[in-house]
Amino acid sequence: MKRSLVALAMIASLACACFANLTELTYSLENIDGSRWQYNYQLQNIALEKPIEEFTIWFSANDYDNISVAAQDSLWDFALLLDVPNLGEGFDGLAIGEGVSKGQGSSLFSVSFDWLGTGIPGSQFFEIVDTTTYQTLDSGSTTEVPEPTSLAIFALASLVLRRKFQTSFK
Fold this sequence. Notes:
Layout: H1 2-18, E1 23-33, E2 36-45, E3 54-59, E4 64-71, E5 76-84, E6 88-95, E7 109-115, E8 125-129, E9 136-141, E10 143-144, H2 148-168
C-alpha cells in the first residue's frame, strides 16, 4: 500500500511538471473605491530560455473601463492597446534593456480600472511575446497570490494529513 502511494505521488509530480508554465504572472487585487479596482502584478520567468522582453495582459472590453498604469517598474515601458478585435483591450509591457531572464522576476507594477462586471474582478489572459518575430512564446491566465491566511490553512491541513498518514502506516 505504501509503495502504491509513493508511486502515485511520483506520477502526479511528473504530470504536474509536464504541464508547468514557462512563465507566471501573479496579481493581488485591491478595491480603491466603489467600482474602481487595482491589480498589482509580478512577472516571473520560470523556465523560458529567452529573457522576457514583452508581454500583454488582455482585459475584456465588456468588464473593464478606464484602464491606466497606477505604478510602474522603471525597467518597463507600458502602453494601452485599445479595442483589439476579438481580444478587447490590452496592457502591453516592453522591456527597457535586458528583460526578465530565466529564474528571475520583475518588480511590481500596477494597473487601475473601473470594473463593469459582476462580483469581483478575476484573472486575465496574458501572452509573452518575442520582440523580433512577434510570436507568442508562452501564454496563460494570471493567478491571484494567495492571502497569508489561505497559506496558513493550507499548511495546517498538510501537516494534519502528513501526521495521519505517518500514524496509519506504523
